[in-house]
Write a structure and sequence with these properties.
Order of helices and strands of chain B: HHHHHHHHHHEEEEEEEE
Structural class of chain B: alpha+beta
CATH architecture of the largest domain in chain A: Orthogonal Bundle
Largest sheet of chain A: none
Radius of gyration of chain B: 20 Å
Number of helices of chain A: 10
CATH class of the largest domain in chain A: Mainly Alpha
Oligomer: heterodimer
CATH class of one domain in chain B: Mainly Beta
Distance between the termini of chain B: 45 Å
Structural class of chain A: mainly alpha
Strand order of the largest sheet of chain B: 1-2-3-6
Number of strands of chain A: 0
Shape of chain A: globular
Number of domains of chain A: 2
CATH superfamily of the largest domain in chain A: RNA polymerase sigma factor, region 2, helix turn helix motif
CATH architecture of one domain in chain B: Sandwich
Strand content of chain A: under 5%
Number of strands of chain B: 8
Largest sheet of chain B: 4 strands, antiparallel
Helix content of chain A: 55-70%
Distance between the termini of chain A: 31 Å
Radius of gyration of chain A: 17 Å
Largest interface: A-B, 98 and 72 residues
Chain lengths: ~200, ~250
Amino acid sequence: MEPVSRFFAARTPGTPSGESAMGRDLATLLRRSAAGDEGAFAQLYDAVAPRVFGLVRRVVRDRAQSEEVTQEAFLEVWRSASRFDASRGSALSWILMIAHRKAVDRVRSAEAARGREEHYGATSGEVEHDSTAEQVSLRLDAQRVHRALANLTKAQRNALELAYLGGYTHTEIAALLDLPLGTAKTRIRDGLIWLRDTLGVTS
Amino acid sequence: MNDDIHALSGAYAVDALDPEERVHFERHLHGCVACQEEVASLRATAAELAGLAETAPPPALRDAIMRQIPTIRPLPPARAETANQPTGSPPADRAATASTRARPTQPRRRSRLLAAVAAALLVIGGLAVWRAVDTTRPPTVAQQVLDAPDAARVAHILPDGATATIVRSKDVGRAVLVTSQLPPAPPGKVYQLWLQDPAGSLHPAGLLTGSGDQVFVLTADASDAAGAGITVEPAGGSPQPTSQPLALFTFT
């Protein structure tokens, strides 16, 4: 079962991104936002919105709800920008964490209202793509990320995709993939650690 | 035990822990530097994955966000107490998380409702909600009601599959409406909340302008109310209901 594999699949060539310079800029923009600088926040938005929206869209799927969740996430970023701590990770990582959590909360609360069992079937299809509005771009390092992903075991990749993009808990993933309880969380962690070490990611 | 709990770092970094585990792990994370570092690095790794498919949001979204931020006061920097929190999460988020998502001793259903509430609380532009969520440490009114030992809930399924649940605590003196997938009110209309006195009359208890998943604290004292209702009213609300209620809730 590879419900979201398109996310990791089709690619087009892209442009360099100047990642670390951008990281420093983002942290500066966050600090200025914390002091109420709306112009800085607008720049921050422009720099990260496609990534945030892309992630939220993958998790939430529904376009209108994805927009709502993205909005919530940015309002939360604005509100709590002062709580960003550069010694604990990058600004981008912090913003995506907020967005991801909100996206996951959204799909889980929707499921809680609807009854989860029947929902599994509905969400295990492929992500519905809205090709007119969607622009997939590729960063310089994306090929590297893809190569790294390709070297995960399929089991690790499935578990990681279902967790990060599917918004499922490791317990749910274990049930979905018919694994002993505890196996999915190990796969998620092993997969992430492997990717981290392969990509040389530093927090 | 320690090995076990370390193994949760990956699932935690991608928000894939069950609520109870999450609280458990966050408690551990607070004092475990190794885990803090690992979580930070795994989150950064997940962020790489998010970069693989960027999708441009519609321009209207930027406009909507930029319109709203002047109405939201940025939090001051964290004090020492919150600065010690484990990696990553903004304290406001953490507060909501700690108090709503994870409650080892509570039944899971409740956690889910509370997770929905937390999500909704942080979402909506509604003033009442922002006010409610703006206090990070003391529980919000909504949370007080939902957590109250005497909280009683009455749920209705509305047309289109939306749900509306009223939770009332006599002790707190308030009632909270929790909606799921509430469709927007028709153009020029709002949802209006009512509290019913023991004699049966309905009294205004606030206007709900949003839709979807909402948490709304009814604006009037609910300690003696016999019930509550929702109607659709012209923008600005009405002193008395002018339409058939979408739902009437009877408190027992």
